[in-house]
Write a structure and sequence with these properties.
The protein has 201 residues and is of the alpha+beta class. The chain folds into two domains: 51 residues; 138 residues, Roll (Nuclear Transport Factor 2, Chain: A). 40% of the residues lie in helices and 34% in strands. It has four helices and eight strands, in the order H-H-E-E-E-E-H-H-E-E-E-E. This is Putative lipoprotein.
Length: 201
C-alpha cells in the first residue's frame, strides 16, 4: 500500500472515531437532560403535595370563627358538618347545618375569610327526620389540629381534608391522608382523640 492510501485510511478512521465520540457526548447530554427533567417533575410534585398538606398549617380564619360566622347567619340551624379542604388551590371551610325547614351550606376562604358560597334548600320529610341524627355535639371536642396529629401518627402522609361530623352516636373527625399513590381515611373520636378506624385504599 502506498503512502497516500495509508494516509487516507488513517484520516477516515480518525473521522469515524470523532463522530462516535460526538454522538456519545450528545447521548450523555440527552440523558442528563432527561434526568434533570425527571428531577424537576419530582420536585414539583413534592412541592404540590407539601403545599396542600393541611396538617400544621395555620389560617387567618379558624374553625371556631367559621362556625360563628355560619351561626350568626343561620341562627336556628344545628351544625351537621364542618369540613376543611383544598378546592381550586384554596383552603376552604365548608359548613353545613339544618333547622326544621331548610338545609344550609356556607363556604369560606380560610385565608381571606371571604364568603365563597351561601345557600339554603328546603328539606323533604326524610331529611327532617335525619336532622337530630346528624346534629354535631360540639361540647368538649378536640381541635382539628389535634385530630390531624392523631391521624397522621397512625397513617403517615399529607392531610388533604378533615371533616367534623356525626357517626352513629359519636362526633368524629374523618381525616383523608395521601402518601404517594396510597390513600387512607382515618376516623378520630372528636371527644377523646382516640383513633376509631383506619381504611387504606
Amino acid at each position: 500500500m502506498n503512502t497516500y492510501k495509508i494516509a487516507g485510511v488513517v484520516a477516515t478512521l480518525a473521522l469515524s472515531v470523532g463522530l462516535l465520540a460526538a454522538c456519545g457526548d450528545n447521548d450523555d447530554k440527552q440523558s442528563n437532560n432527561n434526568n434533570n427533567t425527571n428531577y424537576s417533575s419530582k420536585k414539583s410534585s413534592d412541592k404540590t403535595t407539601s403545599q396542600q398538606d393541611l396538617n400544621g398549617k395555620s389560617f387567618n380564619l379558624s374553625m371556631d370563627d367559621a362556625i360563628k360566622m355560619f351561626q350568626d347567619k343561620n341562627k336556628e340551624a344545628d351544625l351537621t358538618s364542618v369540613k376543611l379542604e383544598y378546592e381550586n388551590g384554596k383552603a376552604v371551610y365548608k359548613i353545613e347545618g339544618a333547622d326544621n325547614m331548610k338545609d344550609y351550606e356556607m363556604v369560606f376562604d380560610a385565608d381571606s375569610k371571604e364568603v365563597l358560597e351561601d345557600k339554603a334548600e328546603s328539606m323533604d320529610t326524610d331529611d327532617k327526620n335525619d336532622v337530630q341524627n346528624d346534629k354535631i355535639n360540639m361540647a368538649g371536642i378536640i381541635s382539628m389540629d389535634e385530630a390531624m396529629q392523631k391521624a397522621t401518627a397512625e397513617s403517615d402522609g399529607a392531610v388533604t381534608s378533615i371533616e367534623l361530623e356525626r357517626s352513629f352516636n359519636d362526633t368524629v373527625y374523618s381525616v383523608s391522608i395521601e402518601n404517594g399513590t396510597n390513600e387512607s381515611d382515618v376516623t378520630v373520636n372528636a371527644k377523646d382523640g382516640s383513633v376509631m378506624n383506619v381504611e387504606n385504599d
